[in-house]
Sequence to fold (445 residues):
Amino acid sequence: VIAQHIRNGEPVRALGVLRRPRLPVELHYKFAPDLMAVLPAETVDSWIALGGQLQPRRLIPALMRYNTASTPSASARAQQGRAEAIRYLEHCVKTLLPEDDGAQSVYNLLLMLHTQSADEGPLLTFLHKAMDMEGEPLYDVKYALRLALGARRHRSCVHLYCMLHMYEEAVALALHVDIDLAKQVAEKPDDDAVLRKKLWLRVARHVVEQDSGKYMQGEGKTELLGSNIRKAIKFLQETDGLLKIEDILPFFPDFVLIDDFKEAICTSLEEYNRQIEELKTEMATATLSADNIRRDISALSQRYVVVDTETSCCSCQLGILQSPPSNTASSHAATGMSAFYLFPCTHAFHASCLLMDISRKVSASQRDRIAELQRNVTAATEESAQQAAGGTVGVIASAGGVTGATGGAPPTADGAEDLEQSNPAAVLEAARLKLDEAVASECPL
Fold:
């Protein structure tokens, strides 16, 4: 029945049949191309009325007939059909979710129809608004750029180049459209000062060389040159200090007199002088800080603290000069009193008390590291004691004119390092320093 009405040139009656309730939705897809060709407005109204019953992606073939460029010679019916297709697709993008089946196809088709329209304004609006919640485009950006380039929609191309971070291409194209647009693009890569300067230099070259061409061809050269220089100086102010006068001087003709730039050059020199003075101040401050640090280091090397008999261990509360209740292996050689640590904050600890406190508070790996350092100190202490006993025998033997077991030729320069490493006293001192760094780098309180 619907097909018969269409063949008889009665699309309104065919559409009336389609609007009957409980009619299969497949019939809308089947007759959509024919109805859009002869009755676009009413057809779109019926689609919108059906709401979510229709899948927009299945209606795309019926809307593709309007994908040719709009020209003044196009028929009124074709222009109306394009407008209705855009109206339906705009309705769809308001209700579609990005994850819906075929959503990007709908966005891309609407993008294509906007690209083929005579006015670029709706296309720019669409490019800016068709974004998801995270600011990502809902259309294919590269496809959009290809369409915009083919349709010579330059402002849209500039916007798409920026979305793809192709700022150099965007500036190059914007210079042929609007100098202010090129300046806006040059400011976009705010996290890359080198690229920003490169873009601004390209804009500056365009501004200077464009006006220089007018100067070389026109009359009233003096007036044109003065206007050109004033324009260049004003342009420098727009770059917010990113470009200097010396950056744009190479763009001017060789015959331009330096006197014409006297004011700008003096301003630039004053700025450099100010920066030099700031650097001098920073250098003087750094030198003073270095001197203070050297004095502090020298003072620390001579710093001492007097410990009286009333000073107590912050862990066991016994006198710091007394032995702790459970004296574990000390990290220092026995001296008749237990080794202790005294921090700049005046807190004091027996070495064994501090080791136990630190071991309880650190992780298992750190605890194992401290235990290993303690073993190294103990081993180095024993080795140092053994060498001290053996060294005494060696001296006595040498006095009697007999070469001991440790005698022989003096060590060579190549063996000096090995000799130092084999020195038990040096090994013991290194082991103590490592243990001190592990347990006493800062006060536990």
Remarks:
- DSSP finds 20 helices and two strands in the chain.
- The CA atoms of residues 332 and 380 lie 11 Å apart.
- Confidence is low (pLDDT under 50) at residues 215-226, 327-337, 392-420.
